[in-house]
Amino acid sequence: MGCGTGASVSYLRERYQLKAVGFDLSGELIRNNECAKAIPFAEARCEALPLADGCCDGVLCECVLSLVPEPEQAVAEFSRVLRNSGFLILSDIYDRAPIDGSFRASAGTAGCASTLRSRLFIEKLLGDSGFDFVAWEDHTRYLKELVAQLILNGDSCEEFRDLFRVLHSGCADPSEVRNSRPGYFLLVAQKSTKGETFHG
After folding, report:
1. Positive or negative, the Cα torsion across 129, 131, 132, 136?
2. Same structural domain for residues 107 and 173?
């Protein structure tokens, strides 16, 4: 999901000989992608994938879930297309701010197109959709390195600006924005089979 120019899809196919396919919301990006001529890509939303039930062994979703206004629908769709015991691999930004045991769904309101969500929110979201956690890794240092590199290079990365535009937009309560601590994570979850629970 969110294959962009298809770098990950190409890597999975060439390095591991997987039958990987790519989906992206941007039809223009796919049409202008030279890789799309040789590798299966399609324009699709993660909330409505043009795939049969239980046809996938794995779903890779890179930096997309934080951009989905209704992540419950997206995760339900990931579960639908995965076979039992199939794997979901997510990488994305999240809110690392301490929440003192409370449950904070996100740094924004329901009207936002993009929000920082807490780890608790993400864990509950996947658990409610029938996924068991296998691994969670915090890789915030890569986000910090990216920020430092952009500053040193004087880069004007549009996606990077969009991220912080969201954090300071009118969608979020000012106190929530001040308390947010953007981080970057990688997680692996497995779709539970009926009557079975995976213990990683």
Report:
1. negative
2. yes
